[in-house]
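Dear all,

This email documents one entry for the complex benchmark we are building for the journal club exercise. For each entry we list the sequence lines for every component of the assembly. Then comes the predicted three-dimensional structure of the complex as a token string, followed by one or two observations. Please use this as the template for your own entries, and keep the labels exactly as they appear.
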Amino acid sequence: ARADPTAAQAAAASAPGSSKQWQNYETVFTNAKAGMAGVNKELVKQVVYEMSKDSPHFKNEQRKQQQTDQRTQKMLARSKQLSAHELEGHTRQMDKKLAALKATQDLTRTWIHCDMDAFYAAVEELHDPSLKSKPMAVGGIGMICTANYEARKYGVRAAMPGFIGRRLCPQLLFAKPDFSKYTKAAEGVRAVLRLYDPEFECASLDEAYLDVTDYCQAHNMTGAEVAQALRSQVHAATQLTCSCGVAANRLLAKICSDINKPNGQAVLPSEPGAIRKFMEELPVRKVPMIGRVTEGMLRQLGVTKCADLLASRGLLGALYSDIATDHFMAVALGIGRTTHGEPAREGEAGRKGKSVERTFAAISSPAEQDAKCAELAEKLAADL
DNA sequence: GCGGATCAC
DNA sequence: TATGGTGATCCGC
């Protein structure tokens, strides 16, 4: 590997005086992600744009973007029609909502959100330690599932097409996803988590929520100490590292687990003042369920930090649904769930749907399209 | 009620 | 050359 990934890339980049259209090209790949602090974002944007701009995929992205632009414009127009009187009314409504929410706040529990670091890639490195020092991605030429930290230095990351990753980092190695390996590793991790909260909840293969209130009490330990012990024990048992967030509820713990990634932890004290201060400065995009689109719409309304959610509560109340504003206000106060969900009904019991989809090259003949549908239906029937 | 959009992993 | 798959929920018509 070269000493300075971005310098090597810059030398290889081809853009002799071309019009710099890529500068206006927003891509998910330049979002902040652990291990990507030193990445030359402009360069990544340029490479992604150059490799994408003539593709059908790009056209489709543009179409979708236009759609959300329209939606945003509609909302913006409505916001401008609001009278001061209407705004005041909505503000009072939101104040009621806030008061009700505050009454439900519970700061007596200690939650840990545990998030494995570059999980699939870390498991692959376990099976082949020589990969550790090399940039490597799990996935294929079509799509990267996750990249190790060596690869992230080049801007290579999850959800990026493999051929773009290879352009950003020519020596990038690919490992074929092997979910039986990851499932097995996850079981090793879970065996440890169970010791700290027998009712812990898996959010995915590599994420879990633990209520460690009882454990803290029984062992006379702080949440931070438990997280430290848990991480050591996970590493001892599996040779894998994870990051933890420690806070009074699941929402805050989840946000915190991302702060000191990889192999770190962050603690938010369960004090009203500390929580208020933490939320005030937090960019809304860090909040679970505020994704790229919602972030964009909120930005148009002048809302970028969680403090803005409170300040603009009247406006939000006028423009968004009850469900959405409930979430916004809860987030603004740092209020999240403090209980486990339904007793984990194993397997398929809670399932509400089942589907199958494939990406394939364009086909235009009705006969071929029909055959494709039949193929998918057969697959779905077999799965069912 | 439905299809499409959004979000998460 | 080439841009994933599954499931849940919400929005807008």
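Observations: Residues 248 and 308 of chain A are 23 Å apart (CA to CA). Chain A has 17 helices and eight strands.
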